[in-house]
């Protein structure tokens, strides 16, 4: 992996990806943030050596370098998932690349279902902790200790100072921003009623199919991390209706302006 990382970083640096301060992973619900970036360079994933390729039609596939709110950023427009057939090492490879390019902070967005029924569709949730239900770890491979501490501490995976700033920004802009625990499952199928009940019992406020592997690797690399979910459906096992993916995407798009406001204002403070 070290050889692959070096090849990829050399390729991007030779194309002008110079010393970004902040990495951003645009999941569902934050695509419009690209409109706020003064783009300097962009490269399709399928042109980057050793990079996976996004296979989900609503996830774009570009790595973008530019300036946002006065800061140099590198932005993943589209992410990778276990359910696409990738390994956890594939899914998190871009985080390792962004760290080698120079980022010190990683900001992440995703779409999630609301397990906590006090949270409503179209609202946002700041992730304050998570539960890994993906069955493995992105750090479970031979040689991981060459890249960072194998037994990475996860007592506080999300940066408390950044989270406090997010809450202040939300309050100032009259944005509903819940705080809760995100559970990450493999997918791509959605959950059964019994699974939603289990998730509630174990302490999850929202459920999705991403983010946790990226957060684990970011902590492995000693990056400051924060993540926000847009809640795209309400997972009430006693009143469960079939979920339409188009409806999930529409809910995410509706919440995008609030997500963009949060992220842009936060980056100005970093």
UniProtKB/TrEMBL annotation:
Pathway in which this enzyme or protein is active: Purine metabolism; purine nucleoside salvage
Residue ranges of every copy of the Nucleoside phosphorylase domain listed in the record: 21-268
EC number: 2.4.2.1
GO molecular function list: purine-nucleoside phosphorylase activity
Keywords: Glycosyltransferase, Transferase
Domain of life of the source: Bacteria
CDD domains recorded: PNP-EcPNPII_like
Function: The purine nucleoside phosphorylases catalyze the phosphorolytic breakdown of the N-glycosidic bond in the beta-(deoxy)ribonucleoside molecules, with the formation of the corresponding free purine bases and pentose-1-phosphate.
Family: Belongs to the PNP/MTAP phosphorylase family.
UniProt cross-references to PANTHER family, sorted A to Z: METHYLTHIOADENOSINE/PURINE NUCLEOSIDE PHOSPHORYLASE, PURINE NUCLEOSIDE PHOSPHORYLASE-RELATED
Protein name per UniProt: Purine nucleoside phosphorylase
Organism: Tamlana crocina
């Amino acid at each position: 992996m070290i050889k692959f990382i070096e090849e990829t970083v050399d390729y991007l640096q030779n194309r002008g990806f110079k010393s970004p301060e902040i990495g951003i992973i645009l999941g569902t619900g934050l695509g419009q943030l690209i409109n706020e970036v003064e783009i300097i360079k962009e490269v399709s994933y399928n042109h980057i050596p050793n990079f996976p390729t996004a296979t989900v039609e609503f996830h774009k596939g570009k790595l973008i370098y530019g300036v946002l709110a006065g800061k140099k950023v590198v932005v993943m427009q589209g992410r990778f998932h276990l359910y696409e057939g990738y390994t956890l090492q594939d899914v998190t490879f871009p985080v390792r690349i962004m760290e080698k390019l120079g980022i010190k902070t990683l900001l992440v967005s995703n779409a999630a279902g609301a397990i906590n029924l006090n949270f409503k569709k179209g609202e946002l949730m700041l992730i304050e902790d998570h539960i890994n239900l993906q069955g493995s770890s992105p750090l479970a491979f031979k040689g991981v200790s060459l890249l960072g501490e194998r037994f990475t501490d996860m007592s506080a995976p999300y940066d408390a100072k950044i989270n406090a700033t997010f809450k202040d920004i939300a309050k100032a802009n009259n944005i509903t921003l819940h705080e809760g625990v995100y559970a990450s499952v493999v997918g791509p199928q959605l959950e059964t009623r019994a699974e939603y009940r289990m998730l509630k019992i174990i302490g999850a406020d929202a459920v999705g199919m991403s983010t946790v592997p990226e957060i684990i690797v970011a902590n492995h690399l000693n990056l400051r991390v924060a993540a926000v979910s847009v809640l795209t459906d309400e997972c009430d096992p006693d009143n469960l209706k079939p979920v339409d993916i188009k409806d999930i995407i529409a809910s995410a798009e509706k919440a995008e302006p609030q997500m963009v406001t949060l992220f842009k204002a936060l980056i100005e403070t970093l």
